[in-house]
Amino acid sequence: MAIEGIDLIKAAAYLGAGVAMGLGAIGPGVGEGMVGAKACEAIGRNPQQAALLTRTMLVGQAVSESTGIYSLVIALLLLFVV
Amino acid sequence: MAIEGIDLIKAAAYLGAGVAMGLGAIGPGVGEGMVGAKACEAIGRNPQQAALLTRTMLVGQAVSESTGIYSLVIALLLLFVV
Amino acid sequence: MAIEGIDLIKAAAYLGAGVAMGLGAIGPGVGEGMVGAKACEAIGRNPQQAALLTRTMLVGQAVSESTGIYSLVIALLLLFVV
Amino acid sequence: MAIEGIDLIKAAAYLGAGVAMGLGAIGPGVGEGMVGAKACEAIGRNPQQAALLTRTMLVGQAVSESTGIYSLVIALLLLFVV
Amino acid sequence: MAIEGIDLIKAAAYLGAGVAMGLGAIGPGVGEGMVGAKACEAIGRNPQQAALLTRTMLVGQAVSESTGIYSLVIALLLLFVV
Amino acid sequence: MAIEGIDLIKAAAYLGAGVAMGLGAIGPGVGEGMVGAKACEAIGRNPQQAALLTRTMLVGQAVSESTGIYSLVIALLLLFVV
Amino acid sequence: MAIEGIDLIKAAAYLGAGVAMGLGAIGPGVGEGMVGAKACEAIGRNPQQAALLTRTMLVGQAVSESTGIYSLVIALLLLFVV
Amino acid sequence: MAIEGIDLIKAAAYLGAGVAMGLGAIGPGVGEGMVGAKACEAIGRNPQQAALLTRTMLVGQAVSESTGIYSLVIALLLLFVV
Amino acid sequence: MAIEGIDLIKAAAYLGAGVAMGLGAIGPGVGEGMVGAKACEAIGRNPQQAALLTRTMLVGQAVSESTGIYSLVIALLLLFVV
Amino acid sequence: MAIEGIDLIKAAAYLGAGVAMGLGAIGPGVGEGMVGAKACEAIGRNPQQAALLTRTMLVGQAVSESTGIYSLVIALLLLFVV
Amino acid sequence: MAIEGIDLIKAAAYLGAGVAMGLGAIGPGVGEGMVGAKACEAIGRNPQQAALLTRTMLVGQAVSESTGIYSLVIALLLLFVV
Amino acid sequence: MAIEGIDLIKAAAYLGAGVAMGLGAIGPGVGEGMVGAKACEAIGRNPQQAALLTRTMLVGQAVSESTGIYSLVIALLLLFVV
Amino acid sequence: MAIEGIDLIKAAAYLGAGVAMGLGAIGPGVGEGMVGAKACEAIGRNPQQAALLTRTMLVGQAVSESTGIYSLVIALLLLFVV
Amino acid sequence: MAIEGIDLIKAAAYLGAGVAMGLGAIGPGVGEGMVGAKACEAIGRNPQQAALLTRTMLVGQAVSESTGIYSLVIALLLLFVV
Known about the structure:
14 copies of one chain form a homo-oligomer.
Chain A lengths: L4 H20 L1 H20 L4 H32 L1
Helix pairs in contact in A: 1-3, 2-3
GO molecular function (chains A, B, C, D, E, F, G, H, I, J, K, L, M, N): lipid binding; proton-transporting ATP synthase activity, rotational mechanism
Function (chains A, B, C, D, E, F, G, H, I, J, K, L, M, N): Key component of the F(0) channel; it plays a direct role in translocation across the membrane. A homomeric c-ring of between 10-14 subunits forms the central stalk rotor element with the F(1) delta and epsilon subunits.
Keywords (chains A, B, C, D, E, F, G, H, I, J, K, L, M, N): ATP synthesis, Cell membrane, CF(0), Hydrogen ion transport, Ion transport, Lipid-binding, Membrane, Transmembrane, Transmembrane helix, Transport
């Protein structure tokens, strides 16, 4: 059999990258949607605070985005560095 | 057996690409739907703020979209670069 | 055994395409349904803003659709390009 | 063993087609149900806007249907073209 | 071993048909139930619009039914044409 | 080994039939329950419209039943025709 | 090995029967519970319509029961006819 | 190997019986709980209708129980008749 | 190999017993909790009907318990009779 | 190979015991939590009925506990008697 | 191969212990959280009944804890006695 | 093959430890979050009872924590004692 | 084969570490989010109690964090000590 | 076979890293979204407390983020240190 150990490692790394990014996009995607939904609702009620609310929304989403970025980093590491 | 190691790697990469994009589309799809739903509701109540709300909706959705794009990037990398 | 490596790759790619499109249709399908549901509700309350709300609904759904299209792209790439 | 590589490919493609269409019908089915439910509710409250609301419902459902159609396309491609 | 490649293909196709129709019946079944539930509620409140609401319900359900029919088509194709 | 290809096919078909009918009964069962629940609620509030509401309930359930029947058809085909 | 093809078929059929009936009991069981719950609520509010509501409940449950019966039929067929 | 075909069949039947009864107890258990919960609520509000409500509860639960009994029947058949 | 067919059967039966009782305890456990929760709520509002409500709760729970007992019976049969 | 049939049986029994008790603790745990939550709420509103409500809570929880005890019994039987 | 039967048994017992305790901690954890949440809410509204409510909370949680303790017992038995 | 039985046992124990602690952290984590959320809400409404509510929160969380600690104990036993 | 027993043990330990930390981050992550959400809500209503509420939030989150830390500890032990 | 033990270990570590980060991003992502959503809502109602609420939001999210960071740490350790 011509399958070397490095092939098994690479196959696991690529499959792992797909799982990491696929699952890792669920949480931030839903979480940021919650933030954006409430921000739209709040701006609809209180439009003169739109700038403040947009800023809050972006800050809140940025933190939630972080775990998505971690997943991206792990996936990229699994693709290129490993 | 004529299966070489590179074949196993490619098979894992292609399966991983499918998993990454498939799972990665769930979170943003639902999250952006929440944003859009609340934006429609808010515009229905406060139509004179439609421009502001549409802009907020698009910004909120764009951030939520990001994890979907990460998934796309990982899937494309798994398809072509790896 | 007459199974070559390219066969294993293609099998994984086709299975991956099915998974990518199948899972990738869940999120946008539900998300766009949320947007459409709220748009109908809002138009029912405020029919004179129907044009504005329909436009907002379509914009919101278009963004949510994007991850579904990403899935379609990945699935098609897995079918024909790989 | 008389199993050739093309048989493995075809088996994966057919299984993938089943998964793609089966999972791909969940999202749009539920999403369109949400739209239709809210449209019925809105027409019950505001029957003189029935034409407008039916049109909005159909547009909203058509967009949500799109990911279901993508799944159908991928499934058909897996069945006949591949 | 007397298992030919065509047998493996057929087995995958039949299993795929079961998965496609089984999963594909969940979404439309639940979605159409939502539409019907809201239609009953609306008719109970506004019985003189029963004809209009029944028509809307049927239209909304018909669109939601479509993905179920796609699943049926794919399952039948997997059974007889493939 | 005395397992012929036709045996593998039949085994897959029978397992597929079980999956198709088992999963296919979830959606319509829940969906029709929603319709029936709302119909009972509506009749309790507006008993003089019981005939109209029962008819609407039955029509709504009949459409939702359709995907269950599709599943039954596919399961029966997998049992007897294949 | 003394395992004949018919044994594999029968094993698959029996496992399939268990899956079909097990999964097939979830949907109707929950759905009929919803109908019964709303019927009790409605009778508690409007006891003089108890006969009408009980009849409606039974009709609504009977339709929801149908997919459970389909599952039973498929399971029995898998046990005795196949 | 001393495993005969009848052993494989019996093993599948016993595993199938466990799955059928295990899954088949979820739906009725939850559904009957809904009925009973609403009946308690209704009796608490309207105690003079307790007899009527208890009867309705029992009828509603009996129908919901039916799918549980189907599961029991299939499991017993898998244990003793097959 | 010293594994006889009866061993495989017994192993499947014991695993099946665990699955049957494990899954079969979820539905009744949750369902009876719903009944008890609503009974406590109702007694808190209407303490002079405590006897009636406790009786109703017990009757409602007893029916819901039935599927749990079926699971117990099947599990015991799998342990001792089979 | 030194694995006898009795070893396979015992391994299956021990795994089955873990599954039975693990899954069997979910339902009663959640269900009893519902009962206790509503009891606390009710006592908070109506403290002079605390004795009555505590008794009702304990009775309701005891019934819900029963399926957990069944799971314990099955698990113990799988551990020691089998 | 130097794997004896007792090794397989022990491996299954240790894996089963992990599953039993892991799954068995979900139900009580969530259920006790519900009780505690409602107790805090009730004390916040009615602080002079804090002693009574804390006692009720502890009793309610203790019963819910029981299934968690059963899981612990089964896991410990799987670790040390078996 | 140089894999001894003790290796298989240790591998199962380590995998079991991961499963036990991973699953066992879900329930208490969510449950304690519920308690903390309601405590914050109650203190926000009734700040002069903050000490009492914090104490109640901690007691309620401590009980919910217990199943998490059981999982920790089982995981540690699987790591070091077994 | 050059795979020694220690390799199998280490592979299981590393996989177990991933599972423990991955699953173990779900519960605390969601639970702490609930606490933080309610704390923001409460501070928005009652800003002069911000210090008290922030402290309560942190205490509540710290307890919920504990199971996440347990998971971290188990994962680290699986990585380095085992 | 040219697969050494170190290859199996590395493959397990890379797959484990993907699972740890993928699952570990779900909880914090959703939890932080809850916090951000409520913060936007609260600021929309009480804009003059925006600084206080943003600070509270960030503190609450930071704690929830911690389990995501633990997952990142474990994943990185699995990639580079192990």
